[in-house]
Amino acid sequence: MKSQNLSLFESFPALGYKLPHVSLASLPTPVQKLNDIIEGSTNQVYIKRDDLSGEVYGGNKIRKLEFLLGDALKKNYKAVMTAGADGSNHCLATAIYAKKVGLKSISMLRSQLNARYARKNLLLSKYYNVEFHHYKNKHTWTWGIKFQRLLHGLKTGKMPYFIPIGGSSPLGGLGFVNAAFELKEQIDNGEIPEPDYLYVASGTLGTAAGLTIGLKALGLKTKVVSVRVNDVSRINMELMLRYLEDVQNILNSVDDTFPKISYSEDDVFFNHDFFGPRYGEFTPEGMAAVNLLDEKYGIRLDGTYTGKAFAALLHDLSHVHRDKIVLFWNTLNSRDFSDIISKIDYRTLPEPFHIYFESEVQPLDKA
Ligand SMILES: *Cc1c(COP(=O)(O)O)cnc(C)c1O
Description:
This protein is of the alpha/beta class. It is globular. It is 42% helix and 14% strand. The N and C termini lie far apart (40 Å). The chain contains 13 helices and ten strands. Residues 59-60, 89-90, 166, 168, 201-208, 305-306, 331-332 line the site of pyridoxal-5'-phosphate (PLP).
């Protein structure tokens, strides 16, 4: 499959020759101005429409998968394995795009709170012929992953290519280094002024870290605000600084003309205030933000990730920022696949997933 010229590769051609990459996404994704999202505000608000990043399924994971699946193909793997919650957007995106490049896909899933998106994602994963494994808790899941990797290796003679949760390996983060270079082109074209702040939902750090590196390498002033939507054990300063360094090391080792940057706590901005009780639990603030963007612009966010991030942005527009340019990075898919899944009976899924269809969704997940 041909490698399209990413913005990053145009600036640093050696990265394009040497890094594994397969073209999957429709890039660049549009930027759009959100006028009057808060009446009388002195701030200007924009949205980066990564929800449109893929033809079948958009969102943020496809940018990471271009590098991860590129690596799997280059190394001659026949199967990829990844892990996440039962309704994981990342596992679904991996299933779809692995199939597209001819790789088998294995999803290692664990229980989560019920939500309509979990039902939909499971059905679409089924349509893409994923091999499913389900675990009830973190302990059995962690062991299950080790066990199934080995078992697959024994059965087929080669271990599956393993993609960590959220696709946030250092290689996956490169997708968002490129995304920052793409944004720079849009700034240069006059599509958006240089943002003061960029808000993004942060679940496994890859998106926020890649953007942080790309923006800093380009000398932009934009501060990336990582709105935490996962446990603090996954989203914290120590992990972020280590991850930034790992991605930076790849860039410098592959192309020594890439700016050499080191990172400190001053480069990293977390917002911990909109997480709510736990991962995947919708919050009143998050759902109010979802409804606002839907009513004013017809753009649908979700309760697990983007609603919480947008709620943080709305709060700061009213209480913190004045005369600022603020960009919201929409990491959620918005492609409609209800036609495909309407033909799939949930009873064809492995039995442990039936509960999602036979029990109520969480109270704030109303239609
Ligand atoms: C996975 C995901 C995120 C989190 O991105 P990370 O790179 O894992 O931090 C945010 N929003 C949506 C909709 C996602 O599916």
